[in-house]
Amino acid sequence: MRYTMDLKTLVERHDTPAGKAFDLVVQALILISLITFSLETLPNLSAETHHLLRIVEVVIVLLFTAEYVLRIAVADRKLSYILSFYGIIDLLAILPFYLALGIDMRSLRALRMLRLFRLFKLVRYNNAIERFARAFAIAREEIVVFAVVTVILLFFSGIGIYYFEHDAQPEVFSSIFHSLWWAMVTLTTVGYGDMVPITAGGRIFTFFMLLIGLGIVAVPAGLLASALNKARRDEDDEADE
Amino acid sequence: MRYTMDLKTLVERHDTPAGKAFDLVVQALILISLITFSLETLPNLSAETHHLLRIVEVVIVLLFTAEYVLRIAVADRKLSYILSFYGIIDLLAILPFYLALGIDMRSLRALRMLRLFRLFKLVRYNNAIERFARAFAIAREEIVVFAVVTVILLFFSGIGIYYFEHDAQPEVFSSIFHSLWWAMVTLTTVGYGDMVPITAGGRIFTFFMLLIGLGIVAVPAGLLASALNKARRDEDDEADE
Amino acid sequence: MRYTMDLKTLVERHDTPAGKAFDLVVQALILISLITFSLETLPNLSAETHHLLRIVEVVIVLLFTAEYVLRIAVADRKLSYILSFYGIIDLLAILPFYLALGIDMRSLRALRMLRLFRLFKLVRYNNAIERFARAFAIAREEIVVFAVVTVILLFFSGIGIYYFEHDAQPEVFSSIFHSLWWAMVTLTTVGYGDMVPITAGGRIFTFFMLLIGLGIVAVPAGLLASALNKARRDEDDEADE
Amino acid sequence: MRYTMDLKTLVERHDTPAGKAFDLVVQALILISLITFSLETLPNLSAETHHLLRIVEVVIVLLFTAEYVLRIAVADRKLSYILSFYGIIDLLAILPFYLALGIDMRSLRALRMLRLFRLFKLVRYNNAIERFARAFAIAREEIVVFAVVTVILLFFSGIGIYYFEHDAQPEVFSSIFHSLWWAMVTLTTVGYGDMVPITAGGRIFTFFMLLIGLGIVAVPAGLLASALNKARRDEDDEADE
User: Fold this and answer.
1) Domain limits at A89?
2) What are phi and psi of B83, to 5 degrees?
């Protein structure tokens, strides 16, 4: 009983030295797993490197499995943990490995995408993320309005440029969906240069879309920044009282 | 009489369950019509798909026509609705279909551009857009000033780069109008890469234009964001009283 | 005497109907002169168009000359006007035309660049520009600091990428000055794509430069926007008193 | 004793005419050394130019050495200066020159990179940088949170686009590390165009990443700007008291 109690403290508390150490080890493992995962995609890897990365992979999955079992063991309400958001992420991070044993290689590859959920584990332990969440809640309504306006503007730009450029460049602006890609790449000011208007009409249309679009696309950043300031001020006000 | 009353509630009120359902159906129809419209532009569509999209098109236009007739029928001041902004948009969304029957294909195509006005119907039902409109009113004056400064800066950049690059790249920077396209693409930081200064003079000129231009082009976003904050504060103040 | 008085009101006052009309005519002339000037650079213009544009040019210069003489005539302190900023601009806008008569074509071309000063005449009559100027004064000190930091960052980026990419792409990153062009195009997020790092070292270096640089380059916009807000608040405070 | 006192004032004080002059001379020397350093990298330099630049280089290093010795001589706690941040930078700025005499050319080249530290000397004398530092301290916590979120988002985007585009463009999106370069270039809106998604899945994925990413990447700028405002207000409050 006493032993379980200590393990519980180790796994679930973040304010004790042991709990902090446990958190840091788990986060380090997540980072290592992400790096080995990325390294595996490099072309021209030698057989030995592949073998080494595979060993690291197996060790990490075993450690994650141990962590998952431990979390269930120490949880007061086990089913509640298993069905929680992080419980599901913890399971999804190890499940592909075990499922892969009996399935062919291609399905394995698609399943590995689920490993990305490990990224959220990294976020889990970050207390400072709370202020960000509060700021997001403050600006939520405006963000939705701007998102809708932005999507409408993108759609409008895409349809407009299609009419201006389709006849001049049928291979490039071949449909409204291709034109939407252009609209998105242009209004976000990424500007790859893979699709560029060449007609006078298309360029003048782009000119006006950019004058309007620059303002709209950049607004969410300003909103979020000001909301974060407000969240900070609210904290200060609470601290003053 | 009683029946008309119910239809009126259905069409014109947005706070009753029936009114909300009607709004949602209309918005869904607008979205479907936009998607089928975009799908039609895809190259290499089979004859069956074309036929199917045509049927969806006809059904949607009939439904929009029914909606338009209904809105006139329930309106207290029918002419006032017909001549209102949304009355005209509602008509423009269906008119091209009926006009197209007697006209040749090319004019039809130009007329379909008017279908875009359906997008504004989507906006119509959004209450949250009001705050955005108020913020826009607050920052209107500064936006105009910045727009004028930006246009002058664009013009100045376009003329400047023409003098620096025209001799080195006569095919690329072939006139001040072509150079204006470069100025716009560069100062908005889109940077397609279709026109790039190569002379030392042109690059140094671009350097100074970018130092000045970055500030000016990005300002409207900051203005709008801060105005939205002000609109929000004003709402809070009204709520406090 | 009475007559001169009226002309003086016409030319120098902006709050009388006649003064406003005079201002509008001058601004329209400046716009027309800029447009004809741009049209002249278009390649493949017919001889008739060239002739027409030349006539418009001569008429505008004559009108500008009349305006210049008029301004001197009505000025209380004539030398003070001639030596003022706008007095010099007004002269520079017409001088190239008269000087060109006796000089060869190439020098004429360089002199035409001075026509750009006409743009400043457009700005002259804009009252709303004052608030912008006040906001600029408020944020002046920070803008200077940021400009210095940005230039240092640009220089640092340019030298760094030169060391990483010069050996791999000696033709592209051929000197620190070429690399500075890359640094400027990248840190302002224009990203033409004419110079792109390909080495792992150069890309990791770019990664860190962008993380730092994005913040620094975008700051002036935020500064100016907030300063404009402050200028607006100051106006409101003065109005309240 | 009296003489040393004067030298001390000259070197260490910035508020006397002599001290200011000394500072300006040192800054001018740093600028000259940076410019000659950059000029040396230009291809196709004549032998005479190389010789001239070499002479300027030697003279500047000798003057920097004199300055370094002088700073040690006038310092009250000599070891404290030598081991200080600027003491080390001052040494690193001249050391490569002396070390280069006995070592082969390639190592010399790597060592010259250290010359960049001279840039920090430029910053040293700038009083206005203090406010910037204070603003940075205010927004530090949020900047860290956003940096972490941005890096996670970059990683997530890189892995995602790898799965969407690797099969379609194995040469371009050849590993997750190559995809990370794409993610960084795209989410910062630089958009070189060297790596562009071509699959429908990859483009839709990019669409959502850009909608989220634009907000996150632009936030630090807003944070820093608002923090700078706060630092300014704090200064005003202190001045009022």
Assistant:
1) 2-125
2) -90, -5
